[in-house]
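Backbone geometry:
***
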Amino acid sequence: MKSNVVARARLLSALFIIAAALLVVRLYFVQIVHGTEYQKSAQGQYVATGPDTEDRGNIFFTTKDGQLVSAAVMKSGWRIAIAPKDIADQESVYETLNKMTPVDRDRFFASTAKTADPYEEVAFRVSDTAAKALRAKNIPGLIFVQDQWRDYPAGVLASQAIGFVGYEGTSTSRVGVYGLEREYQDTLAKPTSGLYVNPFAELFTNMESALSGDPSAHQGSIVTSIEPNVQAQLEKTLEQVMKTYTPDFAGGIVMDPHTGQVVAIGARPAFDPNTYNEVNDPSVFSQQLVEGRYELGSIMKPLTMAAGIDSGAVTATTTYNDTGCIEVGTYKICNFDLKARGVIPMQQVLSQSLNLGASFVATKTGYPVFTEYMRAYGLGERTGIDLPNEVAGDLSPLGEGFGPAVNYHTASFGQGISVSPIEMIRALSALANGGVLPNPHVVTGIKYESGITRSIPVSSGAKVITPQTAETVTDMLVKVVDKSLLEGALKQEHYSIAAKTGTAQIPKTGGYLGGDVYLHSFFGYFPAHDPRFIIFLYAYKPHGQKFASATLAHPFLDIAKFLINYYAIAPDR
């Protein structure tokens, strides 16, 4: 009998403890997580609620010290509508409204003329302070509508990566339509705009999110690897390139070549997502570093060299006889200046950026093997980066390694095949990462409403060349910077830098654009033998300079020096 009483007492105690725990959890979500929403609801019980005020998770930048900086947030406030037939003194009401919050005059008076319409919206994104002051005036005919909207505190910064929220197609609700807003729509969008959430459901939803093997499968905010100060430096540099050389557009990526974390990614021209509706050319919304495909020119040569060395076809000391031009079938392949160099070693292929040297390496490697390496570098496939609309490179001119010979010659120096910038920086990262391809990504974790942040695991990519090959080509690229690039003007006394330029002809139907019309590209990583960062830059149709060494070498160095100082990177020599 006594044991039954004790068992019942223990059961009751356990039930009380569980109930108390659930109450504490519910109080946490009511007072902490949803406190602001309940407060606003209490303030606005006697006004209308907007039809599309759905809530949404935030997007964060991450500083080098791990601090989160808001890139996209939800703001709350009010819309103001009118019942036109109840507006007695239209001019007076307009003046009163416009003193408190901006109101478009033409819209207001056009709305007041619609006396048969009971509801016309005239002001948007009205602050709590302004709405409270207007309500106190008790103006007949004013309707206050509780509202939420997406705000981008950083404005233009990383706008193409962040994207924006808007209306897509005939939808009446707002969704992410570009950038991370689109890619992580299911994560960022909250399933209900109502304030009541069942405490049991909320408790177990957050537990499930915390334990899930795929953090991005649940609703929350997203944390990115974009470092706002590095992003600002990249975009400042791109602005200067645009101003100095007036290309159609320019872009760049700063990435950790080991992890694939994208520290900065941006292009110019860009836009402010807060005012995306004012943009005349919607092409600026797209992230062409991911969605664009180009013939990138001579930055392909280090990959060609790595394929030749890794396959055993050549070594760093192999020589060839450079005749300036060669005939390949009915085509003529030449160096950029048409000049012959005679018998020279492989180093000069990179140092002088010789097309004939690259085609020599491809031929020695063998076209099928050369093609295998190009595919192994991932140049014909998407990287899987977490940004929308990624395209895959086009290696179709190479076929399976048995196509027209000229295709392999031109591909060896980056013409005839097209790749996306994100594909190219991943492939080039293998040279900086011991032969292993990283997996580029922008989002590093999901931050749930419970306060828990879960990291998104990212695996290593494939090993495509040996560490020895990567080290050999890195040594060659350091010599390019120290001795050849702008006659050694970029050499840093205490830091080794591996880098290469690219100046590519731009294709058109049936050939290439003539005149001094080129795509300029540049990549580099440092410190060369244990790199912290790899940088890719490009400019489409720049003016005033023919070669990328003139347009992009110094911008690259500006970013490199900023990174060295900002991250206090230790010297390596």
The CA atoms of residues 164 and 273 lie 6 Å apart.
